[in-house]
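Holo prediction — pantoate.
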Amino acid sequence: MKTFHNKSELTHHIDELKAEGKSIGFVPTMGALHNGHLSLVENGLNDNDFVVVSIFVNPTQFDNQEDLIKYPRTLDADVSLLKIISEHEILVYAPTVNDIYGDNVQSQSFKFDGLENEMEGAFREGHFDGVGTIVKRLFEIVRPDKAYFGEKDFQQLQIVKKLVELYHIPVEVIGCSIHREKDGLAMSSRNTRLTEAHRAVAPFIYKILKSAKTEFGTKSAKKVTEWVEKQFKKQSLLELEYFIIADIETLKPVKRKSTKKTYRAFIAVYAGDIRLIDNIALN
Ligand code: PAF
């Protein structure tokens, strides 16, 4: 398997593949790969001749320096996992911060039609400027035909679709369903940092999301939100940051339900100092 640490070498290799008429799928990651990532890679391999997997912990999307420092970095293990899927059709791009940002580790400022101000955008200052900056840069380097993003970061997925539309980037963005552990916890690289006690209670998040979905069948978004907040007050090891039922197009919280709109419930929870997010389709 070829691993590139340098964008000019990767660009050169991709030029050659493109000249041979090969299609390129792309899975951007921050590493610490789990089965959720691997399923994105498998989707990419089903649709394309080659898949580029980027592994880069992007400093500009972290609003919390401790989270950035402690973010798991497991390149050798990640490469071994990818090799099991395919030795020859996967290219790994694991750049240095300097290869991406040079001396200017700063994000560009974006407006994504207001999508950037909701939920994660409201709670993590500058997060989507950082995500927009790195994804745009990676798209320019990799020039994929299709790119794969998990629905666990549903707001990110919608923002990347908007980025592509606003900047006329010729890539098809494909959202892939959430992968869960057997007990329902959404797969995340951060799960490895949970203490045993927090890991044991974390499936509560998805349990509540499923119940919220049932409740939303007959109750208003406000009532469901109140109910969820009450459930978390009883759970001493988990601290609810937000639970929001939003329209999937605008990501704005629902005021009055409409049968013409599609909704999702979004949640962010602290398990100790580890922040977990999840979401569920409601209708
Ligand atoms: O979802 C992630 O892992 C990151 O936000 C991404 C898309 C790789 C950009 O750094």
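READOUT: The pocket of pantoate is lined by residues 28-30, 58, 61, 131, 134-135, 153, 156 (CB under 6 Å).
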